[in-house]
Design brief:
about 475 residues, Gyrase A, domain 2, Rossmann fold, alpha/beta, 17 helices, about 45% helix, single chain, Four Helix Bundle (Hemerythrin (Met), subunit A), 13 strands, seven-stranded mixed sheet
Amino acid sequence: MASVLNNFGDDTICAIATAMSDAGIGIIRVSGRDAVEICSKIFVSPKGEHNLASHEPNTIKYGFICDESQTEDKRIIDEVMISYMKGPKSYTRENVIEINSHGGMLIMNQILTLLIDNGCRLAEPGEFTKRAFLNGRIDLTKAEAIMDIISAQNNFALESSRQQLKGSIYNKIKELRGRIIYEMAFIESALDDPENYDLTGYPEKLKIVTEDVTKVINKLITSADEGKIRKDGIKTVIVGKPNAGKSSLLNALTGDERAIVTDIAGTTRDIIEETVRLGDIVLHVIDTAGIRNTDDIIEKIGVDKAKEKVTEAELVLYILDSTSELDDEDKDIIDLCKDKKTIVLLNKDDLQNDIKITDDIVRMHFSDDKNDKLPIIRTSMLKGNGLEDLKKAVSDLFLNGDIAPKQELYITNLRHKDLLKKSYDSLKLVEQSIDIGLSEDFFTVDLSNAYAYLGEIIGEEVGDDLVEEIFSKFCMGK
């Protein structure tokens, strides 16, 4: 952490903080030691005053952004409102100025250029939040939560990020680290001063502590897969033969005529991607070309793409025409689905036909370890039947049937999950050392590793490369 702080400069940064598109209002954010001085050079109040430092902090001032290098009739760039937040009571704990201008991109870029000409540097992606972290206003989990709030795609992701921003993960990690460092300190004290610290029976007491801590860590690790699904969604592929109803299913899920539906086989030749919601579950859905043997070169490319997408999918929605018998092409598709979480949709169930594919016929063609648990849903894309059953089937496969979260704290970040696993493994090594009767000084090595891995989660033990990697994923003005 120290090396990162030592590399932290005193320069003043600026960036457009709102969306890069024309809008009613745009915000240009400035942060750093010279933020007030630089902005004072380009801001003029209605009374002709330049000195923003004389204004009360945490107030908004009306005035104009002016380019003093221009002639008088071209000097005013825009009419603005300026917010002044004096450090350390600001987002970055530095002096922060936010210029609220009109939202045209040309206007905002002119103001940004004027700031740079007067001594600002264009901010790197995420640099405002990085400064908040480096200046100690937030920990690393809260910084990551800010980005997650911006990119949240459903209510769970948003609420999970809010809780993380409030300190849910930070507080839990601090608690676990506190228990570990207490044991480390006790061992070190006992080794340094054996006359006043008795280690008799201590390994057994330590094992009770490590078992309790690993139980908590394991619960957090276990929550990660479900947390990621609830937060990021499920990569889903719709497959089936031409005219089975794949495009109709996509349109039903999106509530829009997203894909062309005709009676002509092979209409869909390329992949179509959409994000849809089933309740609070997000599916990143890919509609693929109908899989069949074909001599059409373009259609064959689409079929190959469809097969490739199946291998990458977390969920396969295999749609069958229930009024047609299974043939070799269906069996080829089933072979593609055998190692995937699959839901079979028997479509066109509303049609009267002598041929009706039964559930037993479908199950017979899937592997023995899957066929008893294979979700099979009868649907009619024409009438919209079966979508509620599909929602329940997805929930059963990925969330054990619980649409609502079962606990307050979920791990949704893969970095956190990986570090929790490493900490867990280190504590298990402590338990192994206890079981084989090693001396107490061996315990401190693995305890120290477990403590350090947890510290990386909240940023108390972190290197330059990791900080740069995390904040490089942020948008420019955040």
